[in-house]
Amino acid sequence: MKRIREKWQGLKLNIKFTVIIIAFVIVPIVFFSMYLFYSMEESAVREKRSSMEYSMESSYTRILKNVDSINMSTQFFLSDAFLTDCLGSIKNGQPMSTEELREFYNVNIASLERMVNSNPYLYQIRVYADSNSLQEMMPILYKRERMERLDWAQDTDIYGWKYDYTDMIFDSYVMDQNKKIMSLVTPIEDFENGDLGVLEVAMSMDTMFPELYEDRPGRWSCFADDGGERHYGTEKDNQDSYIEYILKNTVSGGKEESHTYYTEIDGEPFVVGFLPVKELSGSLIYVDSIASEIGRIHNMRAFFILIMVGILMCLIVLINFVVKSLLSQFYSILFSIREVQKGDLGVVIEGCGTDEMGELGTQINKMLLRIRQLMEDNINRERLVKNSEIKALQNQINTHFIYNVLESIKMMAEIDEKYEISDAVTSLGKLLRYSMRWVSGNVTVEEEIDYIKNYLALINLRFDYEIYLSLNISDIIYKQEIPKMSLQPIVENAIYHGIEEMAEDTSIYVKGFVNGDDCIIEITDAGKGMSEKEVSELYKKISGEIEAGGGSGNGIGLKNVQDRIKMSFGERYGIEIASKLGCYTKIMVRIPLRKKEGL
């Protein structure tokens, strides 16, 4: 991600604009096209499923009609008392006379044959007597051995629905080798004689299931009975594996009611229909490939993508040209800035217009003019600084002269054993050395405290009473930096405005501690204090709300300290005041805590 961000930042502006514009154009089109083609695929699947559901409904209606026809024919034969009596006589070994046989054939068998012929949906209705010695009356009555030539006669349970077999009741003649039939096989019984024979009501498979025999590319059907047998009308590639997959995903998923769904088998899209037919103890499975419809949509999508790529390439060239034209003034300004970077400050941007880029060029021209003026001013300022440094060097020479004179006076006082004078001169020398030393940055709190000690040592020479300095400062506070001469003016204010009028021994307390990320230095005197009004007025002078004059007690010293601290550390730092009339005055200095190694 970081590498991509770096590459993006390194691109030229016109390329970035081109990419952004293309993204805003292409992204909505991509999402719209994805939704469009997805909707087209969904619509094709819905249409195919709707067509299949209609076919399934029609098939189920036709199947019910055929099943009713078979059941009615079965009941008609089973209810024929004359047929049942005849079969009972045959089973009991009571032969019928020639007259009886002729009457049975001309009346009963002819009637049954007419009933069969009147139903064009039926293939045949056959009665197999429980005897192999009777006189057969075709096409209705047959010997038992005829039935044994059929495939289903070898089943353990010969009764019920039988599917997909060939009519082979005659040894030398097959009715139709390509004709597959199905039948409902029912026992013929009566109360006295038990089993009298078997009734076979047959119908062509293509009559019951015409969709199995449709020869349509990509579409085929299968009837799966409850015994696990699958019956096909036309042979298709991989149909067994497909049906195995469909049945597994349909039945194991608990979907045993009629329904359709979309699936993919070996990467090929299909719409599958599942139609349970409880009347036939099986299920019809419809499989319809939708590969051609989906493929057509995919081809449309590929063509659309190809067209969009061509349009995109043209847009990139066109947008890049337009963006470059719009940014021509910007590139002119950028070239001028690069010349300035090389050191040529005399560059002037020509032909600035009135638009935003033109205004930018005008402002850059003004900026360059101002830079040239500032450089000239800076050169003059440097001359003044050099002169100031020379004067400071001369003052430093004079300062060394003063230090040497003070050192000589100290030695003379010590020779005469005037040690108080010697100590006073020592303190004065340190005081002068600190105040006259040139420092470019801040000083440490420890250096400022040492200066205050020397200052108080000299102050105590003036008074008949003693001012003591009480310190409670942690080591980390001593190492913090503070503007030079920031604490001494506060101590001086405490002496002249709080202590001097009382004229008695007293102390000035200096406490330093850490408060979060800040350092607090408190300077407290036990002087006369201030009223709330005086404190409020002093705050206004320090903040600059009212002007501080040049006289004593006007707060100008504290204002200078406040201004220098804020300039060094920021607006949240500075001084705060707390005072009580007749008791004390406390000045709190807040500076940032800056940790150093070893602390």
Automatic annotation (TrEMBL):
Alphabetical list of InterPro entries matching this protein: Bact_2-comp_sensor_kinase (IPR050640), HAMP_dom (IPR003660), HATPase_C_sf (IPR036890), HATPase_dom (IPR003594), Sig_transdc_His_kin_internal (IPR010559)
Superkingdom of the source species: Bacteria
Record's keyword terms, sorted: Kinase, Membrane, Phosphoprotein, Transferase, Transmembrane, Transmembrane helix
SUPFAM superfamilies noted in UniProt: ATPase domain of HSP90 chaperone/DNA topoisomerase II/histidine kinase
PROSITE patterns: HAMP
Transmembrane parts of this sequence: 15-38, 302-323
HAMP domain mapped to chain residues: 337-376
Gene3D superfamilies: 6.10.340.10, Histidine kinase-like ATPase, C-terminal domain
GO function terms (MF aspect): kinase activity
Pfam families: HATPase_c, His_kinase
Listed name of the protein: Histidine kinase
Localization terms from the record: Membrane
